[in-house]
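Protein modeling request. Please complete all fields; requests missing the sequence field cannot be processed.
Requester role: graduate student
Desired output: 3D structure, token encoding
Chains: 1
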Amino acid sequence: MITQEHIHTLQGREVHDRDGDKIGTAGQVWTDAAGLPTWVSVRTGLFGLNESLVPLQDADLADDRLVVPFDKATVKDAPNVDAAHDEPLSQEEVDRLYSYYGVRPHDSYQSYQAGAAAGNEYYADRDREPRATDYEQGAGQGDGHYGTRGDGIGDDAMTRSEERLNVGTEREQTGRARLRKYVATEHQSVDVPVTREEVRLEREPITDANRDDAFRGPDLTESEHEVTLHEERPVVQTETVPVERVRLGKESVTEERTVGGEVRKEQIEAELPGDEPRRRLG
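Delivered output (282 residues):
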């Protein structure tokens, strides 16, 4: 259950639906006339001032998240509000929101309405109109103001708030790298020395050293001599040998990138006695 103690802690929290899906980020908080947190705006995109409103009466906090009892599509299509203007909700807007979500106002607010209606004669004598049916917007992040406008109750101080950019990083997959090995065939030429035998005719004169061999045998004969020749031929064979190892490695490279976004801040104008121009704070 969301109570008054939680008002200042809601802004910036992640808002999730009943199924656990993230809807967006909590923005401003509206309290009812009794001071109870009743509506919260949800930013569903990075930019844009229009925010969807969600009732808080059945919402809860779980694991630092604001969980609402509606689905994501219902919240995104809900009536929205221009969060740039710090204005209370009109009764027409409140009735339209309750009708859209199919919920009833909190009992404390219904009791307040009844009391306010009964006291209209007293308020009629004042210089202002009663605002018992208004909801007031409270600035989040610990600097909220809440209550009904014009009831004369509360702090005289006005809190000025502003948004700040919270920048971080998220890790995402950008690509995949892989190694693939395949067989490629190429032609190689290698010079190989080979040896062959050739016939060479050798003639030698008759000398005292070979005379005996020359006159051995018959004087005139017919004969044949045969010589076998040899030569080498290149033989090609292949063998597989490892030549190198290849692996994939990763390294982190840090670079700076500039990001920007739109932020809103509240400004306060002061009208002081004796000051002709208005003073602007912030």
